[in-house]
Every structure is written in structure tokens, then in C-alpha cells.
Design goal:
Layout: E1 12-15, E2 22-28, E3 31-34, E4 36-40, E5 48-56, E6 62-69, E7 80-86, E8 94-100, E9 103-110, E10 113-119, E11 126-131, E12 155-156, E13 163-165, E14 168-175, E15 187-194, E16 206-207, E17 211-212, E18 224-234, E19 240-248, E20 253-259, E21 266-267, E22 274-276, E23 286-289, E24 294-299, E25 319-325, E26 332-339, E27 353-362, E28 365-373, E29 389-395
Antiparallel strand pairs: 1-2, 2-3, 4-29, 5-6, 6-7, 7-8, 9-10, 10-11, 12-14, 13-14, 14-15, 15-16, 15-17, 18-19, 19-20, 20-21, 20-22, 23-24, 24-25, 25-26, 27-28, 28-29
């Protein structure tokens, strides 16, 4: 089900047409799969690749993780997370750990240790683990002193970013106790802990109140099904905010939830706290870059060519865009970095997708993991949502990229070059 460094085919560099953007591909069963393939799970297994997470360790190694989900997985009881390690900047990967009871988790480094923070299973309790040997072995969350952060309840998340601000760690989360249906049940919240505290102890953490979405928001013509997978971000005015994916029929929106300085309360004004955000109907990660003084993200935008008011924007995941903003409000599409023409007009979610991307800055580059659905010579993915690959990618000199550097002629997607300089 997963590849190791022993059977991973060496990646090669290819040039997409006349584009200046280079991408790595892996030859898999005679098919060039975008990126370096870290793991593969065929659709026939009934186990799909979910929730990519990436961390760069102090010794220069990379860690990558993913979850098993799907009808033959144990996602609803005790979910399984796999951890891989690369010693050569992502060219090859070794499988180093299989963790029972971890799902939807973020990987992050804090004080030379690696942490895995998420839930124990689909809508499970919040748990955190620590590794002191570079991801090979992990602590067990047996009780509230060793990583069990919510002894009861149901929660939802994804591998979302960790924010360090004002001597505290901040992490967005959703409680999943606001109903029974997907979307409506998710209520936005924030969790925070002092950076010097033991992160495995429940009493180190403060949990805010929760906020439910209202279906009539955004005009009510199309139902607002839910908000989820929030990003803890420091705004330009020094306020911690939670920027959430918004599942709306037409897409293109995100929600900005405001967090109090002590992390105990969150608030939202639907009249002014929705923003236009390309790809906002799918999971995205936002990080601030000190070099450019811009916020950056990689998103599954819906190009005009694929826009269809009768189809949910959240199902269109065949285009990955690099976007940026100076203020978290106005966002610019800088470059299309991954694309496949299978937009799935005749099947839910299509057959190809580059989604749930987690990424980090590395000097002039971005390094990223994608939950990738792609042809594997074995019938391909069950559908775009049910990915069959975990892939690693490097975007070189990302700050310099423009739409002209895209992997596809953007005019064929209905996009045009901006008339004013990008931020």
C-alpha cells in the first residue's frame, strides 16, 4: 500500500511546454505521475490517501504523513496514520512509522521535538503525540497527562498550520457536535497553549467557545453548508484570526473569525467577515512570509472554464494555484502550479485532483505534499476525492512566479493576465 525508498522510482525534472515552472514527476507503472510519489494505495484496496502533513526537522530531514480513509479503512474506530522520512530534500522517502489512533493531524516541530496533533479517528477526540527521534517512535495519548486533550466529545480538523504568537501556540479546530449532517455539525473554535508548557497535558491548553454557521448567510440563494478546516493566522493589525474554508455552492469565499487575545472567545460578523478567496470551498493553508511581507496559499481555485452554478465548487480540484495577499482580504492569483484537464464533468469530483495541500517555505522555494488522484495504470483513483497517491513537490523561486509561468495556458482556463502589478 505504501512505497519505500527501495521501490520508489527516481524523480525526473520535466518542463511543461514553454512554461518556466519546473515540476518533478515519477514514472509509475509506465505513467508519469506529477511529483515524487511517496505512497500509493490503489482504488481496489478500498483505502484512500488522506490528510497530507509535512514538517522540516532541525537536522535537515523532511517528515511526511498521511491517513488511511475509505470503506476498508478503520477511520471511524481507530484511524491509521503513516509517517515517511526523507534525507535528500524530498527525492526519496522511507516509511518510518505506522500510528494507530491518529487522524486529520498536523505535523509540527517545537523545541526540537516533532508533534502530531489531530483526532484519534473520524469525529474523534483531540489527541497529541510527540516524537523525540525524528518521527520513528511516538508517545501514546493514554490520559490527560500524556496527550488526550479532550476526554470526551467529537471534533473535526485537517492538517492545519500552527501559529506561534505572543508566547503561545495557536491551532484552529472545529467541534463536530452541532448536528448530525456534514457541514452543519462543524462549529469553529481555537485552541492555544503557552509555548513553554508541556503540550501533552490537557491543562496546558485553553479552548475557546464554538461558533456554528447559519445556512442563510451569503444571501441564502445557495445553502451555506458549513465552515471547516480553519487557519490560525496573525493579521496585519496583530490580531489572531481563524480563516476557514466555506462550503458554498459557488465557492470563492472564506470566513474570517476573530479570536480574543487570551484565546478564550471567538466572534464573527456575517455582514463583513466573509472575504473573496479563490478556491475557498476546499481546504487551504495560509502562511506569512517575512521575506516578501505577503501571505501565501496554494488553493484549488475554480477557473472560469470549469465554473458551473449547478455543480458544487468543492468538487472541482483539478487545478492548484499559488495565491498571495498583503492584507488577508484581497488575494491575487500568481501562478497555476498543477493542473489536469479532467475536471470531472461526468463524475463527482472528477478522476484527477491535487488537493489538501500542506506546504512550507524553504528559502526561495515552497515544498509541498498533495493528496493526489491520478492515473496509476490500475484503473486510477476511485474519484478525485478518493486519492490514490501521496506526492511531494517543490516550487522553485515561488516569489518570482507569474501567470505566464503557469503549467497550462491560462487563457484556456478563462483566466487573463492582470493589468496591474501583483503585490
Amino acid at each position: 500500500m505504501h512505497l519505500t525508498s527501495l521501490n520508489l522510482v527516481w524523480a525526473i525534472l520535466v518542463l511543461f511546454g514553454a512554461s518556466a515552472l519546473q515540476a518533478q514527476t515519477t514514472l509509475f507503472n509506465g505513467i508519469s505521475v506529477p511529483g515524487v510519489v511517496i505512497a500509493h494505495s490503489p482504488a481496489s484496496s478500498g483505502i484512500y490517501v488522506g490528510s497530507p502533513g509535512i514538517a522540516a526537522l532541525p537536522d535537515g530531514a523532511y517528515l511526511a504523513k498521511w491517513d488511511e480513509f475509505g470503506p476498508q479503512s478503520t477511520e471511524h474506530t481507530s484511524a491509521i496514520t503513516h509517517v515517511h522520512r526523507s534525507q535528500d530534500r524530498g527525492l526519496t522517502w522511507e516509511h518510518v512509522a505506522r500510528i494507530d489512533g491518529a487522524f486529520w493531524s498536523s505535523l509540527f516541530v517545537h523545541r526540537d521535538a516533532v508533534y502530531l496533533l489531530g483526532t484519534e479517528c473520524h469525529h474523534g477526540r483531540i489527541v497529541i503525540r510527540r516524537s523525540d527521534d525524528g518521527g520513528r517512535t511516538w508517545t501514546e495519548p493514554a490520559d490527560t497527562s500524556s496527550g488526550l486533550l479532550t476526554p470526551e466529545g467529537q471534533y473535526h480538523t485537517a492538517p492545519m498550520p500552527i501559529l506561534i504568537h505572543d508566547g503561545r501556540i495557536w491551532r484552529a479546530m472545529e467541534d463536530a457536535m452541532g448536528g448530525q449532517e456534514w457541514g452543519e455539525r462543524y462549529r469553529a473554535m481555537m485552541m492555544t497553549a503557552p509555548i513553554e508548557d508541556d503540550l501533552l497535558r490537557q491543562d496546558s491548553w485553553t479552548f475557546s467557545n464554538t461558533l456554528a454557521r447559519e445556512p442563510q448567510w451569503l444571501g441564502g440563494e445557495w445553502p451555506f453548508r458549513g465552515w471547516l478546516e480553519g487557519n490560525a493566522v496573525l493579521s496585519p493589525n496583530g490580531e489572531v484570526v481563524n480563516i476557514l474554508r466555506v462550503d458554498h455552492q459557488l465557492g470563492g469565499k472564506a470566513a474570517v473569525v476573530h479570536v480574543s487575545a487570551d484565546g478564550k472567545s471567538v466572534s464573527f460578523d456575517p455582514a463583513k467577515d466573509f472575504i473573496d478567496f479563490p478556491g475557498g470551498a476546499k481546504k487551504f493553508t495560509i502562511r506569512f512570509d517575512e521575506n516578501s511581507k505577503l501571505y501565501w496559499s496554494l488553493t484549488n481555485l475554480v477557473p472560469p472554464r470549469y465554473a458551473d452554478a449547478q455543480r458544487r465548487a468543492s468538487t472541482i480540484r483539478n487545478t492548484l494555484a499559488l495565491v498571495c495577499s498583503s492584507d488577508l482580504i484581497e488575494w491575487t492569483i500568481r501562478c497555476i502550479v498543477l493542473h489536469d484537464p479532467d475536471e470531472g464533468q461526468h463524475s463527482s469530483y472528477g478522476r484527477s485532483a491535487f488537493q489538501y495541500v500542506d506546504w512550507l517555505f524553504e528559502g526561495d522555494d515552497l515544498i509541498l505534499l498533495s493528496r493526489t488522484a491520478y492515473d496509476d495504470g490500475l484503473g486510477g483513483a476511485h474519484r478525485g476525492h478518493d486519492a490514490n497517491f501521496l506526492t511531494f513537490h517543490r516550487i522553485e523561486h515561488f516569489r518570482q512566479l507569474t501567470l505566464a509561468d503557469s503549467v497550462v495556458d491560462v487563457s484556456t482556463l478563462g483566466l487573463s493576465q492582470p493589468t496591474s502589478p501583483a503585490p
